């Protein structure tokens, strides 16, 4: 990193220009908790409209060029046409998220279900999602399994791992050479006694066995309180096994609140490991190997706040954390660490975190022809009022449907 303040700012801006954050299509639909889904005016009625709303986030932030789909919530007849629609809106289709948790058949699990008929149905859905990827040009298939048990003795824990491994093998074998499988873990919920992919270790072990194109997804909301997520990030990056993030905030469990809202310091610490680990800005490894290829995604629901501004705020929060991480004086940090200077090393990190990067980001946007204040620019655009008037009967995101 260059020495003078202006050279450092220029280097940080250059890196930030390469940033892209993927948006979840389901963030734009109505969502809620098991207690109530609050309908909002103007929410999308179709996958096409969700993509149009996502394009608004990209329009004002400049760093959200792709939208993740969820199948079947975003089911259409013609996925190539949906990809073309995305391109005409100025974005592209990103990760394909599979859904093997919403049918009655999945009461006892999907790919780990004791009934081979249900397992077959679940794997067939995952294979169909790869067909969707072929049509949309998506790189990543994202797998999150609600599978688990509620009571001791309910099913054979190890046999369920065997079934999971068999399913992953079959889907991995179906991937084209440019496609990847990313496997998400979650501590608990909806299963409460055992979860079949409960932690990064389980996901890592399955991915390691599968091969190079199977990687782990870190959803920041899927850990026990107090878990050191940046350690997991550092470990997985070092092992070449970090595939993607699902960014969100949690206060208690899988809250899916806006990234950077509950704990912006944690988001900074995660992004520091991402920068330190060479996953951002993306570049070839020291041996010329391809970069980490980490997908930086949001996985959020906006239950009580407006959805497009909620996504803009979240993208900006990730951008701010990234800018601060890029400001860490790596040379000074390494020097203090090598000297065993505990307080010195800590203050190098805290200096970066405590920097107000908002003026730098406003300058970056102005230089790139964007409004320096994306939230205000979107509010002024009138888009929110227009969709509220034009769209009647918006769709639920899928949760609690
Ligand atoms: C569920 O808790 C997970 O976070 C999933 O990543 C995701 O929210 C869901 O599968 C929607 O695609
Ligand atoms: Zn997630
Ligand atoms: Zn989740």
From TrEMBL:
Signal peptide: none
Domain Xylose isomerase-like TIM barrel: 72-254
GO terms of biological process kind: L-lyxose metabolic process; rhamnose catabolic process
Keywords: Isomerase, Manganese, Metal-binding
GO molecular function: L-rhamnose isomerase activity; metal ion binding
The keyword Chloroplast belongs to this UniProt entry's keyword annotation: no
Protein name: L-rhamnose isomerase/sugar isomerase
Source organism (scientific name): Allonocardiopsis opalescens
Lineage summary: Bacteria, Bacillati, Actinomycetota, Actinomycetes, Streptosporangiales
């Amino acid at each position: 990193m260059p020495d003078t303040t202006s050279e450092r700012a220029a280097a940080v801006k250059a890196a930030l220009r390469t940033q892209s954050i993927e948006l979840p299509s389901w963030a734009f639909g109505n969502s809620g908790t098991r207690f109530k889904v609050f309908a909002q005016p103007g929410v999308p009625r179709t996958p096409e409209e969700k993509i149009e709303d996502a394009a608004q986030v990209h329009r004002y932030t400049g760093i959200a060029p792709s939208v993740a789909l969820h199948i079947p919530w975003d089911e259409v007849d013609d996925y190539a046409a949906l990809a073309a629609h995305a391109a005409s809106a100025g974005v592209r289709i990103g990760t394909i998220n599979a859904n093997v948790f919403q049918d009655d058949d999945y009461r006892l699990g999907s790919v780990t279900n004791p009934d081979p008929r249900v397992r077959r149905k679940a794997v067939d859905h995952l294979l169909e999602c790869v067909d969707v990827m072929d049509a949309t040009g998506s790189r990543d298939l994202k797998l999150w399994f609600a599978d688990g048990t509620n009571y001791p003795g309910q099913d054979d824990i190890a046999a369920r791992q065997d079934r999971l491994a068999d399913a992953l093998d079959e889907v991995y074998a179906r991937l084209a050479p440019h496609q990847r499988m990313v496997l998400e873990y979650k501590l608990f919920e909806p299963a409460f006694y055992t979860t079949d992919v409960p932690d990064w270790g389980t996901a890592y072990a399955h991915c390691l066995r599968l091969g190079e194109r199977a990687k782990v997804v870190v959803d920041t909301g899927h850990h026990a309180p107090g878990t050191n997520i940046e350690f997991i990030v550092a470990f997985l990056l070092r092992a070449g096994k970090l595939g993607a993030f699902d960014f969100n905030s949690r206060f208690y469990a899988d809250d899916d609140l806006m990234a950077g809202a509950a704990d912006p310091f944690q988001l900074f610490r995660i992004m520091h490991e991402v920068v330190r680990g060479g996953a951002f800005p993306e570049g070839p490894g020291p041996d010329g190997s391809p970069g980490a290829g980490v997908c930086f995604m949001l996985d959020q629901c906006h239950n009580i706040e407006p959805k497009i501004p909620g996504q803009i705020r979240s993208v900006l929060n990730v951008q701010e954390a990234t800018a601060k991480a890029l400001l860490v004086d790596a040379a000074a940090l390494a020097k203090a660490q090598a000297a065993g200077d505990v307080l010195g090393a800590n203050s190098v990190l805290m200096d970066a975190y405590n920097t107000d990067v908002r003026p730098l980001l406003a300058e970056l946007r102005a230089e790139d022809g964007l409004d320096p204040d994306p939230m205000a620019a979107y509010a002024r655009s009138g888009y929110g009022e227009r969709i509220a008037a034009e769209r009647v009967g918006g769709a639920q995101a899928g949760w609690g449907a």
